Amino acid sequence: MLLISTAFVALARNQARVLGMPAMPTVVLPHPIGGTPLESVLAKVDAALPEIIAKLTTPLATEVKAAAAADASSTWVEIDSSDEWHGLQREFIERGWGDGLPLVPPTEARVAAMVGGAGLPKEHIVGVVAPSMGVATVELIAANAVMAGCRPEHMPVLVAAVQAMVEPQFNLYGCQATTHCVAPLLIVSGPLTRKLNIHSGSGLFGPGPWANGVIGRAVRLILLNIGGAKPVDIDKATMGHPGKYTYCIAENEEASPWPSLRAERGFTAEVSTVTVVGGEAPHNINDHESVTANGVLTTVCGAIAESGQNTVYYNNAEPLLILGPEHAATIAAEGFTKDDVKRSVYDNARIPMTRFSQEIIERRFWRRLATRYRNMHTDTLVTVAQRPEDVMVMVAGGAGKHSMWVPTFGSTRSVTRAILKADGTAWLPSDF
Amino acid sequence: MKLCSPAGHTLPLSLSAVARPRSLEGLRIGLLNNCKAPVDKMMEHIERKLRAMSPGVEIYSVAKMMASQPAEAKMLLGLRQNCDVVINALGD
Q: Are A219 and A186 in contact (CB under 8 A)?
């Protein structure tokens, strides 16, 4: 049986249904449980104990169903369009289809055109999207892409993005259901970025007349509609962040003095890629004064070394440093490689353990990260990643002396997927 | 206007529950701690209470390392092999 708090009832019941046991017995305690005095928590448990015993020992209603034939085909609905714009938008809201912004109606013609952009059959299954384990066919991805305002040529990027997000190491279920603010950040790299107008320069996080916004929005709609991560009930983000509307950028490879993210990960020059990172909102790093590599890196490491970020609490976190081109040039001018930058962050972006509460020290550092910090004194310095190579570094943005730090959910690893056609070859700019 | 619903379909799983025991007597009870605070203390408290109610119960306690990841296959196998029922903490 499930022991849950009131705030998590909808998520727990959704998961029980999705995993094939809608009649799973649950006992609900008043929220919150964490962060409250232990005596009050145990009092809640005592009050619930008779129900716990009852749920363990009471026969369940029999739930034996013949397994239905798998059917992932799209559903088409007739919607009254007499009040063409406002009526449609109201209908979309009532059906829970959107993100609160106006949606492009996914008509037969628009969806068919979008499917055409993928170069795959409409019934092809790209992945299964947590937490509701919705089957993402090409046609369903296309419907969400239409609604977001995408163009057919964006479909290969979206297909690769879904493929990346459903890989186990990304932990999409965790990213979708957590109370953390995480949103998948799409980083597109390679020759397709220019052809598809995915912006890597000034203002790349938005807004602007490029494809970043609609591609990122399509990803969010896929996660909402196919994955079922509706805010409040299923997506339990305490706050969320604006990247949950749209979060897509391109890597500025031309401005980078170092190998790109995709080159680091073994992809050849003609292959464009999508990297998904479970990211918090980006945090600006301003340094207009430093003229040396160590100067810039001192500012960078100082900005990064803050408590309260998930990357500090997990063994496997991969935080992301996005260096603006001018900061990158200053650092590289003294012969620093990307690995030198990673090492610098790992060595110098350290947080005194005294900046964490005793409860965090005991539970997170001494227990969960015991191999590294068990019983260590509180004058220990805590790293923002567990290994230098876990710090991701890339270059993006335009003129100006700013960089960005993107802490991650922590319980997630980035995934890079090539943007490929059905025959396994890379989509090239000449294909569009 | 005919529109494509953007919502996904979940491929159906059908599971049948094991028969519920009639009482706690001699029961093997699993306690699955999702590692959120203070679930460990809650589970210890539940264990004390269960033992006080029915001294013959066997308690099999396990704890995930990360709340947001599924329990590992080895842990699930242990619960399956060693428990008649499981109390699973979920959420914050």
A: yes
Nearest CA in chain B to A136: B8
Given this model, what pLDDT does residue A179 score? Answer: 95
Cβ contact (<8 Å) for A143 and B4? Answer: yes
List C-alpha distances in Å: A228 to A177, A221, A290. Answer: 10, 9, 47
pLDDT digits (tens, 9 = 90+) for B5-35: 999 888 877 777 778 888 889 999 999 999 8
B66 Cα to chain A: minimum distance (Å): 8
* Nearest-angstrom CA–CA distance, A51 and A57: 10
For residue A41, name the pLDDT band (cuts at 50, 70, 90): very high
Tokens 């727990």 -> residue: A12
- Angstrom CA distances, A277 to A170, A178, A220, A431, stand at 8, 15, 14, 27
Write out residues 248-307 of A within 8 Å (CB-CB) of B.
none
Contacts of B42 in chain A (CB under 8 A): 3, 33, 41-42, 45
Residue of B2, B4, B32, B76 best to disrupt the A interface, most CBs of A under 10 A: B4
Shortest alpha-carbon distance between residue A403 and chain B (Å): 30
Which of A5, A57, A85 best probes binding to B when mutated, by most B CB atoms within 10 angstroms?
Answer: A57
Smallest Cα distance from A230 to chain B, Å: 11
- The pair phi, psi for residue A421, each rounded to 5°, is -85, 175
Query: Which ipTM was obtained for this model?
Result: 0.92
Region A235-253: mean pLDDT is 97
Chain B environment of A67 (Cβ under 8 Å): 12-14
A289-329 pLDDT, tens digit each: 999 999 999 999 999 999 999 999 988 899 999 999 999 99
Q: What is the pLDDT, as a whole number, of residue A60?
A: 77
Contact at CB, B20 and A57, closer than 8 angstroms: yes
Of the CA atoms within 13 Å of residue A292, those in its CB half-sphere come to 3
Specify whether the CB–CB gap between A64 and B14 falls below 8 A: yes
Rounded-to-integer distance, Cα B24 and Cα A377, Å: 45
State the Cα–Cα distance between residues A51 and B46, nearest whole angstrom: 12
CB contact under 8 A, B35 and A368: yes
CA A268, A270, A271: angle at the middle one, nearest 5?
70
pLDDT (average), residues A52-57:
92
pLDDT exceeds cutoff 80 at B57? yes
CA A231 to chain B, closest CA, distance in angstroms equals 15
Among the listed residues A423, A312, A432, the one whose alpha carbon sits nearest the alpha carbon of residue A372: A312
**Does the bond joining A156 to the residue before it have cis omega, within 30 degrees of 0?**
no
- The pTM is what? 0.93
Cross-chain residue pair A2–B10, CB shorter than 8 Å: no
